[in-house]
Amino acid sequence: MLDWSAFLELSLPVGELLVRGTITFLGLMLLLRLVGQRESGGLGMTDLLVIILIADAASAGLTGDAQTIADGAVLVGTILLWSILLDAVAYRWPQVGRLLKARPKPLIENGRLNRRAMRREFMAETEVTSQLRLHGIEDIHEVERAYIEPNGMISVIPRQDTETTDTPEPPAT
Question: Signal peptide location in the record (predicted)?
């Protein structure tokens, strides 16, 4: 017969689980922040980190790597708490938010490539021009500004004096 109470008892002290969850979350957050924006893909870095850590913490409780489901629940709660807390701090204090949250980085300014930002993101010129083509732009000189956004996507602001193929047509009247 199953001992249901064994599933819900903690096998480790709550304090130890909180410390483990905190160190893991903040350590991985720092590492992902250092890696760069392009590596985090279409999700925000914090979103990606939360998904990975919650899946890992929850799977430990489900697969038996942790002693009980309660251990996994404490870790999931710790991870969610830190995610919400860091978002709240970044919102409340924008100066701190600049450290916690990635900002857009200019890849093209006034039709010229920003090689420093490209090196930081390990982007070759061919990758930038490929992204421009997805926006309907053939020549870098047609771009006023292009940014790599915090979610890894590239946004493009074309020059006003040039036409692009993805310019919306006026509505029919």
Answer: none
